[in-house]
Amino acid sequence: MSQTKRTLHTSTPLMYSTSMSRQAGCNVWLKLENMQPTQSFKIRGIGNLCVQALAEHGTSHFIAIGDTNTALAVAYSARQLGVAATVFVPASGGTAPPIRAKIELEGAAIVENGRTLRDAYAAACAFAEKTAGAFVVDSADAAAVVAGNATVAAEINVQLQQQKPAAVVTTVGSGGLLAGLISGLQQCGWQRVPVIAVETHNTNSFQQALLADDERPGAATSDAPSLLPPLESGAEPDCDIRTGPSGRSGCDGTRDSGTRSEPTVATCLLAGATSERAVELTREHPVVPLSVTEAMAVDACRRLLDNHQLLVEVGSAAALSVV
Fold first, then answer.
1. Which residues pair with 197 in a beta bridge?
2. How would you classify the pairing of strands 109-112 and 134-136?
């Protein structure tokens, strides 16, 4: 099998939730992306990008930034493809996030540099420039990432036996999953199936990006957020960081998320930049952005555990708070 045809993600179950269906008054199905080898959807897009980079560019060293699900997907992909991986992170001060142990278990080298993600990003870029065969995995808008994430919709289409859903509910951080979902829905002929994009009040960078998007019908053209990436803090945004140290828009097409992030328990939804492709797709596909409280997200996490014995990140459970 050629490298270009290889996939690193698995097809995940689509589970019917009797309890949530009864509560919502309609059929509710749960796409269990926590069953992926890296416990998140990230391996779909990241894995596809890594496979493509190896096949087309002969990449021999993958680079990621931050103690994030993205970095874990990069580390897993590198191990599966037999190449090296290095993850640059801010200094932990002696207490590393739990996900770091998983990243190291996949064989990736961890390099602590500076106090903020901006420092780690700069170090990663410098390392890539002097390392032969290096590839920085940092783009939520890369075509391969969007295509990989689109496989979620393709699987749902098969699992529902081509029956069109009334709506798709998802959480949104940097917007890479949302871009893939919309792309996949359109490929299935479900152009009019709305996507409900859920964030918490403290992580709603995508909602702010829509307000700043003057090409989207009904979007605000004034009082837009000051488009600056939240890279000055030591917090670990689970996103694909591409914004440069100067605060300009990233060279991969992502847009700075604008405001410094408030403290949040939904850490996997923190985004340093918002996918430009996701914003573009909202102009041609029905997307309803919703923002919920942190307490609602925590309660949804508990309900999922009580009803289905499934424990997921609070940010991931935020989507269930509107069901």
1. 170, 289
2. unpaired
